Amino acid sequence: MGSKLKNIGLISLGVIAGIGASIQFDAIAQKSAAAPLPLEELRQLADVFGLIKSDYVEPADDKKLLTEAISGMVASLDPHSAYLDKKAYKELRESTQGKFVGLGIEVGMEDGYIKVVSPIEDSPAYRAGIKAGDLITRLDATPVKGLTLDQAVKRMRGEPNTKITLTISRKDEDKPLIISITRQEIKVQSVKAKVVEPGYAWLRVTQFQEPTVDDMAKKIAAIYAQEPNLKGLVLDLRNDPGGVLPGAIGVSAAFLPKDSVVVTTNGQLPSSKASFYAKREYYANPGSDPLAKLPEALKKVPMVVLVNTGSASASEIVAGALQDYKRATIMGTQTFGKGSVQSVIALPPDRTTAVKLTTARYYTPNGRSIQAKGIVPDVMVDEYADGDGLNGLRLREADLTKHLSNDTDKGPEVTSPKVDELEEAQRIAAAEKKRKPLEYGSKDDFQLAQALNQLKGLPVKISKVKPESRSDAEKDDKDDKTPLDDDKAGGGAIIKKEQKK
């Protein structure tokens, strides 16, 4: 685990970098340059362009050179900023609607190979047995070594019902695995729910999409139709990589007092300094409110929120808000720590390409920065009764090259295990190999069982592993601090009012 993932993205989405970016699909007003342009460096760029055109061994295409220059410039900023070509931009817009064509795996680049961060539930890759931590070494007959992440992603994309063969290197497997996967249009079911036992329900959000709030409202209504006197609810955000910001606000608003601050952001632009509230206009289309008919009792039903290292971005916003208001007990393991806002800015002249640019940081209602830190659970609980499994070995935001720092916490950033812990990682991986895949919400779901015990006032088996640290601000907030008011909150995601979904 000594090598860090150099980049991260979703095969099914194309060249999207980052986990669960909160997005918009219109251009925003460009900030006027406060300082003069660096003319000397721009001349140097023009000189290099001219040298390539005149001296390179083969003729170079002007458009390709300039596009690659833009792509490299944006990618150099942080792990989540990226240039989106026409196809990637189109796929990004489709993905927020909950459907896209692909394999359904979240991936990154490590040592020149594609590393699987996580398969998306119910996707072709998930059903084919692809696991987190797998290294993809070949795509059909093409070696991955030497390809960029973008190039590898493009080879894995294709038309529905076409096949691709992946060569997989998996820890503790003596031979490479050859796995054939059929590309499909993936319709991600973002919300799942059921009554797990009389009086207690499980509500899972797998990813925050445009339909998430509507889907959640329908699932909750169905739960109350079956259990009108609900005693406790488990909100499951484990391995939820994030998604659109309105979805996170709507899910939070279902459980928080009306008009509560859900999240704030802060960046260079004046419009990035704003607060987002548990109000209809922040999560629903004009004239509709999917939460309006939900039972009033939902605001007070005892709750546990399950999180883990795979919980990122929008799911961290929800967990952080419910934690700050003491509305729910947060249980599980420390989250990923993606606390930055990505704005998708369409580019002229035809607005068919875009730049996904990090424009602000996220803060919980109490002003805690999520970036490179994540949410520390109130109750630490391992994934299994005998330990944390591979969850503790997964990368975090702080592992990513050029990640933004946490500007409110002076404590150490949480990182994945280093080289000297490789032996322990191999031991855990060998043990994990013998386990059957964990199905969230099943009778074998240890963390869910502990969440139910918490709701019932029964003993909970707490993890022996302690969180990396809890900042001084968090310690102060834990007992007596209430969420900040609007005039103190500071920050806000760059999503125009008319664009709120």
From TrEMBL:
Annotated Gene3D superfamilies: 2-enoyl-CoA Hydratase, Chain A, domain 1 (3.90.226.10), 2.30.42.10, 3.30.750.44
Bias (Basic and acidic residues) ranges: 465-501
Keyword Plastid tagged: no
Keyword Calcium: no
CDD domains membership: cpPDZ_CPP-like, Peptidase_S41_CPP
GO molecular function annotations of the record: endopeptidase activity; serine-type peptidase activity
The PDZ domain, residue ranges: 89-157
Keywords: Hydrolase, Protease, Serine protease
Superkingdom of origin: Bacteria
EC number from the UniProt entry: 3.4.21.-
Gene Ontology cellular component annotations, sorted alphabetically: outer membrane-bounded periplasmic space
Region (Disordered): 457-501
Any one biological process term the GO annotation gives: signal transduction
Similarity field: Belongs to the peptidase S41A family.
Annotated protein name in UniProt: C-terminal processing peptidase family protein
Species lineage: Bacteria, Pseudomonadati, Pseudomonadota, Betaproteobacteria, Burkholderiales
